[in-house]
Amino acid sequence: MNNKITLVIGGCRSGKSSHALYLANQIAQNKKQIECNNKSLSSRRKIFMATSVPTDKEMDARVIKHQKERGDDWITAEVPVEVPLKIKEFFKSADVILVDCLTLWVSNLMFNNFDDDAILKITQEFQDLLTNSTSPIFLVSNEVGMGVVPENALARRFRDMAGMVNQKIAQTADQVIYTVAGIPMTIKNR
């Protein structure tokens, strides 16, 4: 399980983040138990990479709520754009990395004027990095393609890019879990 990449995907409020956090905590706890049994305690840690950029009081409140849910044993890194670069920095010293969420990452890339080709290029670089990770990584993303077709071009572009990124990351992932109404269903398990 040392090289496991898991994508947890679902709709808004589906329970995907909670499930990813549960799984990541299980991995970290198992590693800690093994290190205690081997008497080789290290300085490894749990890293939470937040891609959100709070812009209002509601988002601020959500961030605070999620931080309390995670607990003090998680190190939070706010990484709106440079997700692959930061993962590369962290994966050698982390017990587990949780990225929440890829959908906001895509939104941030678009906001920072990445065109479609640039988003797909950085996603390919991300896939290559994930393949070489030495730490378990959990990635959370929204499934945004199951609703109505958005009425404006920007929203359609976002939906399409989020869908493409999800497909590419799902190809790379060892495991893909789809959550609906708080129920996780494994749809890919390598």
Overall description:
The chain has 190 residues and is of the alpha/beta class. The chain has one domain (5-189): P-loop containing nucleotide triphosphate hydrolases (Rossmann fold, 3-Layer(aba) Sandwich), CATH 3.40.50.300. It is built from 6 helices and 7 strands; from the N terminus they run E-H-E-H-E-H-E-H-H-E-H-E-E. It has helices at 16-37, 57-70, 83-90, 102-111, 116-131, 153-172; strands at residues 5-10, 45-50, 74-78, 94-100, 137-142, 175-180, 183-189. Strands 3-2-4-5-1-6-7 form a 7-stranded mixed beta sheet, sandwiched between helices. A hairpin with a 2-residue loop joins strand 6 and strand 7 (183-189).
Condensed summary:
The chain is of the alpha/beta class. It has helices spanning 16-37, 57-70, 83-90, 102-111, 116-131, 153-172; strands spanning 5-10, 45-50, 74-78, 94-100, 137-142, 175-180, 183-189.
Descriptive tags:
190 residues, alpha/beta, Rossmann fold, seven-stranded mixed β-sheet, 47% helix
* Helix content estimate: 40-55%
Instruction: Spell out the CATH superfamily.
Output: P-loop containing nucleotide triphosphate hydrolases
Total separate domains:
1
CATH hierarchy, class: Alpha Beta
The fold-level CATH name is Rossmann fold
Could you give a short account of the major beta sheet? Answer: 7 strands, mixed
* Poorly predicted segments: none
What's the alpha carbon Rg, rounded to whole Å? 16 Å
> Could you give the order of the helices and strands?
EHEHEHEHHEHEE
How would the blueprint of this fold be written?
Elements: E1 5-10, H1 16-37, E2 45-50, H2 57-70, E3 74-78, H3 83-90, E4 94-100, H4 102-111, H5 116-131, E5 137-142, H6 153-172, E6 175-180, E7 183-189
Parallel strand pairs: 1-5, 1-6, 2-3, 2-4, 4-5
Antiparallel strand pairs: 6-7
Helix pairs in contact: 3-5, 4-6, 5-6
